Amino acid sequence: MQQNNNVTKFILLGLTQDPKRQKMVFVIFFIFYVGTVVGNFLIIVTIKASKTLGSPMYFFLFYLSLVDTCFSTSTAPRLIMDALSAKKIISYNECMTQIFALHLFGSMEIFVLVLMAVDRYVAICKPLRYPTIMSGQVCIILIVLAWVGSFIHSIAQISLALRLPFCGSNLIDHYCCDMQPLLKLACMDIYVINILVVSNSGALCTSSFVILMISYVVILHSLRNHSAEGKKKALFTCTSHIIVVILFFGPCIFMYTRPPTTFSVDKMVAVFYAIGTPFLNPLIYTLRNAKVKNAMRKLWHIKITSESKK
User: Fold this and answer.
1) Structural domains in the chain plus CATH codes
2) What pTM value is reported for the model?
3) Taking each helix axis from N to C terminus, what angle separates 19-49 and 56-73, rounded to the nearest 10 degrees?
């Protein structure tokens, strides 16, 4: 519940106050956002349309691409529009909505990455039981549980945000609304709430990262018993996943496992976490996955051929 709040809107300071740099911000992040949407859309359509990409790994990759698009959309469009605005004003309600969306899709990405690691563990370490353990029904249940967990996490975050009273400055030294920059504006002792934020978001990021790293160590260790060809294929797939995990969780842990202090690199770390990673994921998964590339070529070749015959 909103308490003792005299602030109805906030002013985002953005990435820079320099007009020339703001134009650069607009161009760079417009390209990034369009690339994110187009890249993830291509993966989504390819997986849905291709009969060769029906395994659980591509089922989870479909949701990763979907979540990446939504996660980037929660911050990128406003950053792009604000780059051309003299005053970057966001209403209180819009700010709370952005926090909810940011944490909903951010936590969902974490859960999907964990599910992808589980899928690879079962496929590599228990290949004979893989079809049974990772059946279509099980995959759907796991995705539903991931959405429920993400919703609970986001509700917890927005509940903390709505408890913050704002009675002084409304300048947010950031390009979007999130808990850490808002805590600095609250007219109250934020020690307890910051502990709750760290124990929620910070614990989610850190524990998931540790679990993922342990799972991939176990997977890589088990590869010693595989054939040279099987080892190469599994190592290639796992390397892609590990790259994505490190790129996503590094900034996430940096942002959510510390006191509400400000560092000069905070904004760029947040940009990389919320906009950069969703842009890179399609590149990593398509450029390093021959099956996805072949399915894309086949799908779009059929589309172009059918269009030319009309």
Assistant:
1) 9-309 (1.20.1070.10)
2) 0.88
3) 150
